[in-house]
Amino acid sequence: RLDLPPGAQAPETLVPPGAARDATDLTLDIVIPVFNEEEMLDLLVERLGQVFAPEVLARQGVASVRLVLVDDGSRDATARLLAERIRQGLPARLIRLSRNFGHQGAVCAGLDFADADLVAVMDADLQDPPEVVWEMLAAWRQGADVAFGRRRRRQGNVLKRLGYWGFYRLVGFLSEIDLPLDTGDFCLMDRSVVTALRRLPENLRFSRGLRAWVGFQQVAVPFDRPARAAGEPKYTWSKLYRLATDGIASMSTRPLQAAQLASFLFGVLTLLFLFLLVGFSQHLDVPRPFLFAYVLIATGNAVLAFCLYILGAYVGRTYLEVKGRPPYLVMELVERRAPPQKPHV
Ligand code: UDP
Ligand code: MG
């Protein structure tokens, strides 16, 4: 984490908006979280090598590209293979987390270890086509601080696609900020945005939501999302559930407000009806009101149970935040040592 003295502004955030964006010596860091991706590595490195070939960089005004690979506690050969690649000269640093912290923790780590002028975030499975980064760079040159990928079409498991579709709309509906629809973590960010993100203290990271929250100039870059190039998806259903509930809870307190309102309304309604029952009991000889009372109380209980679920979701996360544990722990940093500098004559 970037530690700033209290009250200090990160110098990067003071760069005036609209500053010259025709630089031809840009540095670019590409953050890629990897978890058990051994089948993907050759394909990934090869494709990145094509998209970020020296002649392309020269054309795009980029002086250097570095990969910031975050190994999220892989249990296969991923970390070893990547370290080998780096020793052979792959321009990358590998941050090995001490265990599997999840995609969001890994992205957070990557952003903390990136320090280029521009930082891109993409998945390791080539579902975020690397060449789209050049479109994002074009958007940056026109003044965008964040260019994020928006999925035009998506391939894969129908149930998952439906789930994602519903999730983005639900979060968009619930959250107090405008969360762009159908966007993942695939993006290119100006250094000022990365600095702003690093300063957010929360430990449960929902990076696409935080990225929307920080503001700045944001534009969507549409792209077609292909199927995973190799290997199995690393997001299990339980990880997706965590992402969804973390996303909602971190971006909005509306479910909590709805739960409060619902339990209040049903509490009042139930009390009112019970008072009526007691007040008019001598005039009643049909059990209908009792049936109604039962329905009301049962419904109230169901609502309360639901409210408890929502309360639990927030209380649990509050507890985790209060403990203040970091979103990830680094076990090892693999980097090619810079070649010894020739002393000036
Ligand atoms: N990933 C990770 N930690 C995890 C799960 C996934 O770092 O616990 C990485 C994974 O290696 C990939 C990216 O997050 O680079 C997206 O994962 P995946 O392709 O499985 O997700 P999906 O395409 O289903 O959203
Ligand atoms: Mg994927």
UniProtKB/TrEMBL annotation:
GO CC annotation: plasma membrane
Top-level taxonomic group: Bacteria
Membrane topology: Multi-pass membrane protein
Pfam family, any one: Glycos_transf_2
Keyword Membrane listed: yes
Sample GO molecular function, one term: glycosyltransferase activity
Region (Disordered): 1-18
CDD domains reported in the protein's UniProt record: DPM1_like_bac
Subcellular location: Membrane
Keywords, alphabetical: Glycosyltransferase, Membrane, Transferase, Transmembrane, Transmembrane helix
InterPro entries registered for this protein in UniProt: Glyco_trans_2-like, Glycosyltransferase_2, Nucleotide-diphossugar_trans
Domain Glycosyltransferase 2-like: 30-194
Transmembrane segments: 261-280, 292-315
The protein, known as: Glycosyltransferase
Annotated source species: Corallococcus llansteffanensis
